[in-house]
Write a structure and sequence with these properties.
By secondary structure, the protein is α/β, with parallel strands linked by helices. 28% of the residues lie in helices and 27% in strands. The protein is built from 19 helices and 36 strands. An 8-stranded mixed sheet has the order 2-20-13-16-12-3-6-7, with helices on both faces. A 7-stranded mixed sheet has the order 21-23-25-29-31-33-34. Strands 22-24-26-30-32 form a 5-stranded parallel sheet. Strand 33 and strand 34 form a beta hairpin. The termini are far apart.
Length: 727
C-alpha cells in the first residue's frame, strides 16, 4: 500500500472510533474507551518514559496521551533519544500543551478530532471538487459608499449615534512571519504588533481611530464615551507580552485599564502533508496560532461576550491590526450605522478586489436545507474557490476587478446572534493551507522539512450559521432583507495590509510601503478633491519606491475622521513638490496655505485633556491653531538622505513646527514663515504671529483662562456633520 492509502485506511478507522468516542462526555468513560485500543495497550507495556509515568498521570493527561497513541503519533511525539538531558521538563511542558489541545478542541473530538479533521481536509484538497453541491453562489448586494448618497450619509450619522452601544474586538495575535520583524539589539523575531508604522505601533493606529470616533461623538452630543476593547492575543513570538508592553507604555491609551480585556488565542499543532505531527525538537511540538475562527468560541469561554453585554454593549466592530486603512473616512461608521439601524446580525465592509488576488470574497450563498431555501451573505476564501466552483472573473470585459468584492475582515457583530450561531458551530470555516515547510523527524531520527500546516479557521464564516430561511427560492435580483449585510466602499479607503517585507521590484502590495502608498493616495484625494488644495502629481508606485513621495502628509484621525469634517477645517492653498504636512491636532483652521517645505503642528492632547487619573477627557481644552493666508517656505525634508517615510523616519533640514500644550492657541494671518521655526506654546497661552514693518515675523503672547474659540459640530437636516466656529 502507498503512504496515501495507509493514511486513508487510518482515517476510516479514526472516523469510526471518533464516532464512538463522541458518545461519551464523561472523562472516565472516554479514557476507558481509549484504553481498550490495542495500540495503547501495546505502547503502555514498553520501556518508555511516557509508559513509565502514565499510571501517575491525572485523568485529563491520560486522555491526551492515549489520544496521541490512538492517532498513531506516539513514536513521533513521544520520541526520546538517549542524549536528551532535560526530558522531565520537556515532558511536563508537552503534557500541559496536549491537555490544552484536548480541552479546547473538545467540540470537534479533542486531539483525535483535530487530527482527523486535518486528514479529511488533506484528502478534500487532493480530490476533484463535487460540482453537485447544493450551494449556489451569487453576487451580494449592499450599500455603496462610493458616492455620498443620502442613504450612505444617513448610515454614517446613525453609526455615530450608535457608538454608545458598540464595543471593539481586535484579533491581534498574528506572528507576522512574512514581515520578518527582528529586535534590532537581540535579533529575536517579533510579532506584527511590534511593526513601527508612521512612528507608532499598529495597535496605536487602531486606538487613535477609535478615540477619533468617540471624539466626534463628544463634539456632537457633549457626552464622554469609553468604548470597551477586547483583544485576542497569542503566545506566538511573545505577542501577548508585547501587546501588554505597548499598552503599558501608552498608559493604556489614557483610558481605564479595566476597559480592556486581553484573551489568548491558543497555539495549534502543525501537521505535515503526510499526516505526521510536526516537531520543532524532541518532545517539542511545532506550534502556530490557531485560526482566527476560534475567536468566537474563545470569547464565549473566557466571558468576553458576557462582559460586553454587561457593559450595555450588545454589538461590536471587529478589525485586524495589519490593516491601518480600515478607519479611513466614513467606512466603519457607515457599517455600524447600517447594522444598528436595520438591527442586523452580522455585516461585512467590502470593496473592490483584483482578479486572482490572494483574498477571500464576499458572496450571497443560497442553499437548500430540509426543503427550505436558506440565504446568507458570507465569505469564501480564495483557496476554496475550486471547491465551490467559483470562477474568478472580472466584473466587466476590460476591468481589473473581480465580479465578487473582497472580504476585508472588517465586521459588524451582534453578540446574541453570534452566540446562537455558536450552538450550530463553535469553530467556523475550518481549512488547511499546506504551503509552508515545517520541521519533522524521519524514521532515522534526522530532522527534515516538509510541507505542512495547522487547522485554520475563518472568523467571518460564523456568518454561514446566521441564515434566513424561506419556503421557496427568493428573487435575488431584488435585494433580500437578510440578517447579514454588506457595505461596499472604495478599496483604498478600506484595505491595505502590512503582511510581508518589501523585497524590491514594483510590487508593494501587502507591504508596509504599500500601506503608506495607499495612505498617500487617500490624503492626496482628501486635500485635492475635498479641501481644494493644489497638489503635485502623485507618483506611481515604482517612482515612489525609487524617489520617495511628492508630498509627505499625515494627520490625526480626530481631525475628522470624516473627510467632510476635515474639508470644513482646511480649505484652499497649494502644497509644492516634496513638501510635508503633519497635523497631530483636531481644533485646526487652515485657509489658503502656501507650503514649500515642512509644516508640523502638534497638540499635546489633540482631543481634550487628561484628568487627575491620567484618563483622556474629551474637551475643548486641546491645542488650537489658526493659519489664514500663510506662506511657509523652508528646506524641509532632505530627500538626499535615506528617509523611511512609512516609519515617519525623516531627516529635515528645516521646518516650521508648532507645539501646543493644554489649552494653548496659535494664530497667524497674512504671515510668511521663511526658514526654520520651532514654536512652543505653553499651557493656557495664546500666541499671535504677525509681520512687523521690516517684514519679519513677530510674536505676541498672552495668558488665557479658557479657549477663545472651538469648532461647534451639529447634524444638519441633510444628515451631514456641519461645523461652525464658536467664539
Amino acid at each position: 500500500m502507498t503512504s496515501l492509502q495507509i493514511l486513508k485506511e487510518q482515517t476510516k478507522h479514526l472516523a469510526s472510533f471518533l464516532g464512538r468516542l463522541n458518545q461519551h462526555n464523561d472523562q472516565k468513560e472516554k479514557l476507558a474507551l481509549l484504553e481498550q485500543e490495542e495500540s495503547i495497550q501495546v505502547f503502555l507495556k514498553l520501556d518508555h518514559p511516557i509508559a513509565i509515568i502514565y499510571p501517575q498521570l491525572c485523568e485529563t493527561e491520560k486522555v491526551a496521551v492515549a489520544s496521541i497513541i490512538t492517532i498513531g503519533q506516539a513514536s513521533n511525539v513521544f520520541s526520546v533519544p538517549k542524549h536528551l538531558s532535560d526530558t522531565s521538563q520537556r515532558l511536563k511542558t508537552l503534557l500541559s500543551q496536549l491537555v490544552v489541545f484536548e480541552e479546547f478542541y473538545q467540540d470537534i473530538g479533542g486531539i483525535v478530532g483535530y487530527h482527523l479533521k486535518i486528514l479529511d481536509l488533506i484528502f478534500q484538497n487532493q480530490e476533484t471538487p463535487d460540482s453537485g453541491k447544493t450551494k449556489k453562489i451569487h453576487q451580494a448586494q449592499g450599500l455603496s459608499l462610493h458616492e455620498n448618497s443620502q442613504e450612505a450619509e444617513r448610515a454614517v450619522i446613525f453609526g455615530i449615534k450608535s457608538l454608545p452601544k458598540m464595543g471593539e474586538l481586535y484579533p491581534i495575535g498574528g506572528a507576522g512571519d512574512r514581515l520578518d520583524l527582528r529586535d534590532e539589539t537581540t535579533g529575536l523575531p517579533l510579532p506584527t504588533a511590534k511593526l513601527n508604522y508612521l512612528g507608532q505601533s499598529l495597535l496605536t493606529c487602531m486606538m487613535k481611530d477609535l478615540q477619533a470616533r468617540e471624539h466626534l461623538y463628544f463634539k456632537l452630543f457633549n457626552k464622554q464615551l469609553t468604548t470597551p476593547v477586547a483583544m485576542m492575543t497569542s503566545e506566538a513570538k511573545n505577542n501577548h507580552q508585547f501587546i501588554e508592553q505597548i499598552c503599558n507604555e501608552n498608559h493604556w491609551y489614557n483610558r481605564p485599564k479595566e476597559s480592556f480585556k486581553l484573551f489568548k488565542q491558543p497555539l495549534a499543532p502543525v501537521i505535515t502533508i503526510e499526516g505526521q505531527w510536526s516537531m520543532q525538537d524532541h518532545l517539542k511540538l511545532f506550534l502556530k496560532p490557531s485560526g482566527h475562527g476560534v475567536i468566537w468560541k474563545l470569547a464565549q469561554d473566557e466571558g468576553i461576550l458576557n462582559w460586553f453585554e454587561s457593559l450595555g454593549r450588545p454589538k461590536a466592530i471587529l478589525r485586524q491590526m495589519n490593516n491601518p486603512m480600515a478607519g479611513t473616512d466614513q467606512g466603519i461608521l457607515a457599517l455600524m450605522g447600517l447594522g444598528c439601524e436595520k438591527n442586523k446580525a452580522f455585516g461585512f465592509a467590502s470593496c473592490q478586489r483584483l482578479v486572482h488576488a490572494a483574498e477571500g470574497v464576499n458572496v450571497l450563498i443560497e442553499d437548500n436545507v430540509e426543503n427550505q431555501s436558506q440565504y446568507t451573505i458570507s465569505n469564501i476564501e480564495y483557496t476554496e474557490f475550486e471547491k465551490y466552483n467559483l470562477k474568478d472573473i472580472p466584473n466587466s470585459p476590460n476591468s481589473p476587478y473581480s465580479v465578487f468584492p473582497s472580504n476585508t475582515n472588517i465586521l459588524f457583530i451582534d453578540f446574541k446572534e453570534v452566540q446562537k450561531a455558536l450552538l450550530r458551530c463553535s469553530i467556523p470555516g475550518m481549512l488547511i493551507n499546506m504551503k509552508s515547510d515545517v520541521p519533522y523527524f524521519d524514521e532515522s531520527g534526522v530532522k527534515k522539512m516538509i510541507k505542512g500546516g495547522r487547522l485554520e479557521s475563518t472568523m467571518q464564516n460564523i456568518a454561514d450559521y446566521i441564515t434566513d430561511a424561506f419556503d421557496s427560492p427568493q428573487d435575488i435580483e431584488n435585494e433580500i432583507e437578510l440578517k447579514t449585510f454588506l457595505t461596499y466602499n472604495a478599496r483604498n479607503k478600506t484595505i491595505s495590509v502590512a503582511k510581508k517585507t518589501f523585497k524590491g521590484g514594483d510590487n508593494i502590495n501587502e507591504t508596509p510601503e504599500g500601506c503608506y502608498y495607499t495612505l498617500l493616495q487617500n490624503n492626496f484625494e482628501l486635500l485635492s478633491k475635498h479641501c481644494n488644495i493644489k497638489m503635485p502629481k502623485l507618483p506611481c508606485s515604482s517612482d515612489f519606491i525609487n524617489n520617495g513621495p511628492s508630498c509627505h502628509i499625515t494627520f490625526h484621525p480626530a481631525l475628522g475622521p470624516l473627510y467632510s469634517v476635515i474639508a470644513q477645517k482646511i480649505q484652499k492653498g497649494v502644497l509644492h513638490d516634496r513638501s510635508e504636512l503633519m497635523l497631530e491636532i483636531s481644533e485646526l483652521e487652515i485657509f489658503n496655505l502656501d507650503l514649500k517645505g515642512s509644516l508640523i503642528i502638534k497638540a499635546q492632547n489633540p482631543m481634550g485633556h487628561l484628568d487627575s487619573n491620567g484618563h483622556l477627557q474629551y474637551s475643548n481644552q486641546s491645542g488650537k491653531c489658526t493659519l489664514i493666508n500663510i506662506t511657509v517656505d523652508n528646506q524641509g525634508i532632505d530627500f538626499k538622505e535615506k528617509n523611511v517615510f512609512w516609519k515617519n523616519h525623516m531627516i529635515r533640514n528645516q521646518k516650521l513646527e508648532i507645539l501646543l500644550d493644554k489649552n494653548a492657541e496659535f494664530f497667524a494671518q497674512d504671515v510668511t514663515f521663511n526658514g526654520n521655526y520651532e514654536i512652543h506654546v505653553p499651557e493656557n497661552t495664546r500666541v499671535v504671529a504677525s509681520m512687523d514693518e521690516n517684514g519679519k515675523v513677530s510674536f505676541q503672547q498672552h495668558s488665557i483662562e479658557k479657549p477663545t474659540w472651538s469648532w461647534n459640530y451639529r447634524i444638519s437636516n441633510q444628515d451631514r456633520v456641519v461645523l461652525s466656529k464658536k467664539l
